[in-house]
Fold this sequence. Notes:
By secondary structure, the chain is of the alpha/beta class. It has one domain: TIM Barrel, CATH 3.20.20. It has 18 helices and 8 strands. The protein has helices spanning 14-20, 32-36, 39-47, 56-63, 70-78, 83-101, 103-108, 128-142, 155-166, 179-198, 215-229, 236-245, 249-265, 268-274, 299-302, 315-324, 335-343, 354-389, and strands at 23-28, 52-53, 116-119, 147-152, 171-176, 208-213, 282-286, 309-313. Strand 7 (282-286), helix 15 and strand 8 form a beta-alpha-beta unit. Helix 4 (56-63) runs parallel beside helix 18 (354-389), helix 10 (179-198) packs parallel to helix 13 and helix 13 (249-265) packs across helix 17. The longest helix has 36 residues, at 354-389.
Amino acid sequence: MTMTASRPTAVSNPIRDIAALGQSIWMDNLARDIIESGELAQLIETKGLLGITSNPAIFEKAIVGNKVYDQAIDAGIRAGKSLMEIYESLVFEDIENACDIFKGVYDKSNGLDGYISIEVPPDLASNTADTITEAKRYNKVLNKPNVMIKIPGTPEGLAAVTEVIAAGINVNVTLLFSLQSYIDTAWAYIAGLEKLAANGGDVSKIASVASFFLSRIDINIDAQLDDRLKAPDLSIESKAKLEALKGKVAIANAKMAYKAYQEICESDRWKALEAKGAKVQRLLWASTGTKNPAYSDVMYVDGLVGPDTVNTLPPSTIDACVDHCDVASRIETNVDDAIALIASLKDSDVNIDLDATMQDLLEDGIVKFVKPFETLMKALQDKIDTIAAA
């Protein structure tokens, strides 16, 4: 008998098993070399990848020191483009090409997956009007049904989300940390759909995700717990309580967000939109690369599989998941324990202010997007100068 090569099946690929349970795996990475080499298309075919997210930090890594962009930069110089125009030409081309590669996923899923996310300039996080303007411009220039505009989940950003959704544009709301920030995001999405519907728009054509961050929470909380553990004369019971919280808060917080999502989906406002064909705004688990080597490298995958969710993974976590994810639907398990765990942060011997922590993480997250953007622009200017002088 002649043997032919077979494609990976659900049995051999945990990512496809995860998809069967209602969660889509997207990749947190984009660069021209993986587009041009065919690697990105292969990831769809061989691993079941269903979407891509990008941000300024990702593009900084992709463009700086990578010669694959030099020809396009030289063309921009010859065309007399400004630094920002050259930057946008590079990024937009990558986004457009990735959208084309994932168009089959988009069509096959009836617009559920196949999205490529691009973030508005990160220095606009506190400017509602400019965020709206840039989101609309990005969407018009890219002109792809499966592009998703990323907007930070700041109060100013959420005001923009409503208007951008109302304009018929797909939105990825990013940098969500607190439960309340997610709830506010969900209602901002619903308000946008209501406005779109009132203006005669088709709500069934809009998709959105709420990107809820994970590993950064545990890094911050664990550091606070370590400080508490340094206290003199700490009782055995108190020490055990503090140790038991380490590496547990992010997933507990996410489970509470999912519970809130389910409750919002039962609201009259959502039911009215659902009757018009609206898609749910899926919770997207972000910042899922485990930073602490003492923890499982797939803990933020295994612990949060469940229906109507997305998990966006860096390439290394995708490889780790394919190798050893333990797939089961866990997002709705032990929710009462998660609620109790979050409540225990207020105990006198723990005394962690979760609201203040989440606000700090949001502010720090914006900085972590702004700084790479500034670094990228400086490095791109250096590269422009070098190529122009050659």
